[in-house]
Amino acid sequence: MGFLQNATTVVYMLHTRDHAGQMADIYRLLSEDEQKHARRFVKNTDKTLYILSHGMLRKILGARLSQDPAHLAFRKEKQGKPALEGEKIHFNISHSGEVVLIAVSDTQTGVDVEYMKPDFDYEEILATNFCGRESKAARSALDGRKMFYRLWTRKEALLKADGIGLTDDLTKIDVSDGVREIPEDLYHLKGAWNTMSFTADEHHVGCIATQSRTVSFVRLRPGDL
Q: Between the ranges 57-66, 75-84, 131-140, 211-220, where is the mean pLDDT highest?
């Protein structure tokens, strides 16, 4: 099974500092349940990331579908992965530090972003969750910490693409070269997956996992939608 030739994927990138002045307007786009969820956060940083990611997802999907963002209805699929009622469109969100990523696609997709902690000891994770080739890639890289985060976000993006936490043996998913045939015994993640790593900024690394060949990136700033 190869890539889906006519499918496209767009990754939207947002920085919290760009949208600080629009948070009240973005909050009003959320459903009543989403607003309640946002109010439960203790840390303002966590609340901001939640409001920005979910509110801007609504704006992006609303613009793409020519619908009112505030009136979009979501449902939960397997493992709690959200889907849009009445529409065949795939999306996924991730946030870390000051960065939010929102992926929208014609096919299954997963996205992950991580803040690269300067003092994070990743050796234990390499030993338990990475195959030999991946561990070698991280240990031999000029910047081993950054390579670890590149590999980790690739795995996370693949896990999120299908919504079935593949927790039994992550060493089976070799993402060292970015494009891999996933072993058929790993649930529904079969076929060729494009796991494309990218640098969101100097402190954050991200990855998009998709079965489409075409991926584009958009930096969203206030007024773009």
A: 57-66
pLDDT given for residue 165 in this prediction: 55
How far, in Å, CA of 160 to CA of 93, rounded?
A: 9
C-alpha 110/C-alpha 97 separation (Å) is: 19
Question: What is the domain partition of the chain in residue ranges?
Answer: 4-219
Domain 4-219 carries which CATH code? Answer: 3.90.470.20
37: left (phi over 0), alpha (psi -120 to 50) or beta: alpha
DSSP 6-44: EEEEEEEEEEGGGGGGGHHHHHTTS-HHHHHHHHT-SSH
Instruction: Say which residues have a Cβ less than 8 Å from residue 23's Cβ, sequence separation at least 6.
Output: 48, 51, 52
Q: How far apart, in whole angstroms, are the C-alpha atoms of residue 13 and residue 40?
A: 25
